[in-house]
Design brief:
163 residues
Length: 163
């Protein structure tokens, strides 16, 4: 869905259900591995296009010419590796799309939250001039904003940009 200002919530029960669904996915993939940076660097990469075609054509050659393969080479294990790669690539594509959407929405929600906080800060800063007790709150918010924005010297955040 195209980005517009968000006006939604995600109830805790839905967050729990999503986490349970991810756990179900993990449970369906008990063979997943974690590679070290060195392992990742040293492994052959299938990449795309030509390498995938090479693997597929090699599998076809192995199936059609089993007599040329040494006894130590397991054609069934090779075929399982090729099939696993294809299945995981399919799953990974769907997960990457989902992760990209969740990431984009998180960025948008965070941006809207910071814009709202900047507005609150400006309102509190203005009200602190006439409302007893708000100066300390305005000062605290100002310090927090300056720490996160790299030392704003204008006295506070600018109005958030219009979408």
């Amino acid at each position: 869905m195209p980005y517009q200002n968000l006006d939604v919530s995600l109830p805790a029960a839905d967050v729990a259900a999503i986490k349970a669904a991810v756990k179900t996915i993990e449970d369906k993939l008990p063979f997943l591995v974690t590679l070290t940076p060195d392992e990742r660097k040293n492994l052959f990469k299938i990449g795309g296009g030509e390498r995938v075609a090479f693997v597929q054509n090699s599998l076809t050659a192995a199936k059609n010419n089993p007599g040329v393969l040494p006894g130590a080479f397991s054609a069934p294990a090779f075929e399982k590796d090729v099939a696993l790669y294809a299945a995981l690539s399919d799953v990974l594509g769907v997960l990457r799309q989902l992760v990209a959407k969740v990431d984009d929405t998180t960025v948008a929600a965070g941006s809207e939250a910071v814009a709202g906080a900047a507005q609150v800060y400006n309102y509190v800063k203005t009200a602190a001039k006439t409302t007893p007790g708000l100066k300390a709150v305005a000062d605290q918010l100002g310090q927090q904003f300056k720490q996160k924005s790299g030392g704003d010297t204008t006295g506070g955040p600018a109005a958030p940009p219009a979408p």
